[in-house]
Amino acid sequence: MPLKTRLQREWRFLRGLNRTLGRVKSIAPDSGNLICDDLQAAVEAWRDSPAITFEGRTVSYGELDAIANRFAHWGRGLGLRRGQTVALFMPNRLEYFAIWYGLSKIGVVTALINNQLSGLALSHCLSIADAACVIVDAETAPVFEAARPLLDKPLQQWILGPAQGDQRDLVQALKSCSQLPPDRSARADLHARDTALLIFTSGTTGLPKAARISHVRA
User: Fold this and answer.
1) Beta-strand runs (E) in 72-129
2) Distance, first Cα to last Cα, the chain
3) Cβ partners under 8 Å of residue 48, min gap 6
4) Would the N or C end of the chain have less CB density within 10 A of its end CB?
5) Residue 176: how many CA atoms within 13 Å on its side-chain side?
6) Domains detected in the chain
7) Using one digit for the tens of pLDDT, what is the confidence trace for 119-133?
8) Mean pLDDT over residues 77-86, rounded?
9) How far apart are CA 98 and CA 64, in angstroms?
10) Residue 206 pLDDT > 90, yes or no?
């Protein structure tokens, strides 16, 4: 790469980094402003603008927020409480972002499980996440089923797709959920230092370990 091109690229990166640091430096760990509040502000500012394009489908900020709100109300309907965890075991798809965004609106932590895991590594991640339930799709459901006997406790399985056996049909459940934002009281008393997400190490030196991502870090 020519030196001039490389320098221009680095300059653009540094300008972007400086803008980002300027926006987040005022966020204090004891702030009541969570990642979902910042995302909600973006929705209000750009409601009709494109937010995500995936495999030929584009949704606006408003549409994305409506999908997220359905997941939030689904979680409340299950009785999920602030601080509890839902495991998300799926490949990339349009709903992926909306799921953890929606659950953060009710103070629920989402454990982002690597969809390439299987067997002992998968069961280990699900166990240490202490998840109340797991969300899968048609691709990951068979992998979860294979790892199920290795879990240290039963785990309710919700599938974005046709349900079989004891699976719960998440698509059907979402149809009865409101598209309006849940009341902010659902995440009352949470602060920016609290956990928003769990991500996991690669497990190259042993089984994967969970890293807690606070709302500040998110």
Assistant:
1) 85-88, 109-112
2) 33
3) 60, 61, 62
4) N
5) 9
6) 32-214 (3.40.50.12780)
7) 999 999 999 999 999
8) 94
9) 6
10) no
Query: Strand 57-60 to strand 50-54: parallel, antiparallel, or no bridges (unpaired)?
Result: antiparallel
Distances (CA, A) of 130 to 86, 134, 139: 8, 10, 23
- Tokens encoding 165: 């056996």
Laid out side by side, the sheet with 156-160 consists of 168-169, 156-160, 133-137, 85-88, 109-112, 195-200, 210-214
The CB density around residue 118, as the number of other CB atoms within 10 Å, is 15
For residue 7, give the 3-state DSSP assignment: helix
Residue 203: the pLDDT is 67
Nearest to 95 by CA among 57, 126, 49: 57
- pLDDT tens string 134-174: 999 999 999 999 999 999 899 999 999 899 999 999 999 99
198-204 long-range Cβ contacts below 8 angstroms, 24+ apart: 198/85, 198/109, 198/110, 198/111, 198/112, 198/129, 199/112, 200/111, 200/112, 200/113, 200/114, 200/125, 203/121
pLDDT at 16 over 90: no
User: Helix 61-78 crosses helix 95-104 at what angle (to 10 degrees)?
Assistant: 60
Buried b (16+ CB within 10 A) or exposed e, 6-40: eeeeeeeeeeeeeeeeeeeeebeeeeeebbbbebb
Neighbours of 71 (CB within 10 A): 27
Give CA–CA dist 194/34, Å, rounded: 9
